[in-house]
Amino acid sequence: MHKQAFFTALLMAIISLVSLQANATPVDDPNYEYKDNQYCGGCHQEKLKEYSQSMMGKTPHDKVFQQFYFATNAKGEFDGFGYKGLHPNEPGDCANCHTPDKVLDAGHEVDLKAAIDGGSKGISCDYCHTVSDVKLIYDEKSGRYDTDITRTVTRARGDTKYGPLGDAKSPVHKTMLSPIHTKSEFCAMCHLNQEHLLSLSTYADWKKSYDAGKVTKQCQECHMPTGGKDRPIALGGKVRPASSIHQHLFHGGHDPAMVKKAATLELHAKHSGNTVTVEADVTNVGAGHTIPGGATLRNIILVVEATDSQGKPLTHTGGRKETLPPLSGKGGKPGDYAGHPGKMFARPFATKTGMVPAGGFNADHILFDTRIWPGDTDHSVYHFKTSDSGPVSIKATLLYRWTYKPLADKKGWKQTDIIMTRKQLTE
After folding, report:
1. What is the pTM of this model?
2. Cβ within 8 Å of residue 385, ≥6 positions away
3. CA-CA to 323 of 20 to 30 Å: which in 112, 116, 199, 213?
4. Of 137, 257, 134, which is closest to residue 187 (Cα–Cα)?
5. 8 Å CB contact between 323 and 342
């Protein structure tokens, strides 16, 4: 037999043997040590490149996340605003999602620094692909979830990797089809967090809309889209149709292209005498959950501007109910829109003493909830006065922010507004 043919036959035999050896029932090996992402990327080069660019792939080393946990600012100075500022001697539950390997190994909450110093690999390829089940625990009587991953996540650590393909074969590890990897419940192990309030509600918001028939897609269909050209998913693998190859970029609120698909804006105005009435309709057309999403710091602001024929701003006569709150930025710096005609879409938390914004770790109540549910439209009206009989110009801009501007200013975080959409008209 020719050498090349011999080695090809040998490789195929090994692949077949490995595939046949995959256990029918997931078994967890407590002595297994997670592989580095670079190890997986030796064969899955495209997936490693994508995942390394994602926010999830950068945790727990993302600076903003660490500064919010350790209560420091962008300069590394302790400012007290963050989890450790209020609970210096408690570990908290942040590590549950940012260093889940160390939490599950310990069987209880762990301090983030201890987890990082202990060599946590974060949300690694190996972690996700050795999770065999995720259980949702909800108490209908109390209306509360149990989101402790030591009770919701089942691992099957070992040389069997779990995923959405039933015919995957590898000479390096065993493979097993995993239905949970195709369902939103898999994402719920981190994108659902019950503290005093449901501080991260993304899965619950999706589930409510899904059960109501307003959403038909699972999380993976939007945040792990397929596409490109037909290709192997690993070096030496068979060519697969692009429709079966999912991206691992996990684009969401930090990606302008993703954010811009979420909403539409319609603008109407009526000019009668010296009165101008502006109506704005914002519709959630692209998100399978609320916009903004279920993390309490996310916010969207609608900024409405009206000028006369000379370009002079019109006097707003609609009162405070038609203006943006202090959370949109107060102080006169660029991007400060507090008191400006418009509306904020958000779910900010407040402490018992009324401090806003609060994190899930010190929240007492929801200040307001103006998020827009899938398929729903928010309608708002604004009133202006003009002394000019000429035409007036109206401009409305929808801006997305991953955190509230006062908090970004306080922490020294750089935040660039994402323009979701903008409309202009003359009346």
Report:
1. 0.92
2. 274, 275, 276, 314, 315, 316, 317
3. 199
4. 134
5. yes
Distance CA 244, CA 388 (A): 60
Can you read off the two tokens belonging to residue 87? 């609970």
236 Rama class: left (phi>0) / alpha (psi -120 to 50) / beta: left
Interatomic CA distance for residues 20 and 124, integer angstroms: 26
In order along its 427 residues, the chain shows pLDDT tens digits of: 454 444 444 444 444 444 444 446 899 999 999 999 999 999 999 999 999 999 999 999 999 999 999 999 999 999 999 999 999 999 999 999 999 999 999 999 999 999 999 999 999 999 999 999 999 999 999 999 999 999 999 999 999 999 999 999 999 999 999 999 999 999 999 999 999 999 999 999 999 999 999 999 999 999 999 999 999 999 999 999 999 999 999 999 999 999 999 999 999 999 999 999 999 999 999 999 999 999 999 999 999 999 999 999 999 999 999 999 999 999 889 999 999 999 999 999 999 999 999 999 999 999 999 999 999 999 999 999 998 778 999 999 999 999 999 999 999 999 999 999 999 999 8
Q: Are 285 and 266 in contact (CB under 8 A)?
A: no
Residue 425 tokens read as: 């008209």
- 3-state SS of 157-223 is CCCEEEECCCCCCCCCCEEEECHHHHCHHHHHCCCCEECCCEEECHHHHHHHHHHCCCCCCCHHHHH
- The CA R_g of the chain, rounded to the nearest whole Å, is 25
Q: Which residue has the tokens 């099957």?
A: 156
The CATH number fitting domain 256-426, selected from 3.60.140.10, 3.40.50.720, 2.60.40.10, 3.30.70.3460: 2.60.40.10
Instruction: Indicate the domain borders of the chain.
Output: 3-59+123-244, 256-426
How many beta carbons lie within 10 A of that of residue 7, not counting itself? 11
Which has the closest alpha carbon to 163: 207, 126, 121? 126
The token pair that represents 369 in the structure block: 């909830």
What token pair was written down for 152?
């919701």
- Cα–Cα dist 363/154, whole Å: 30
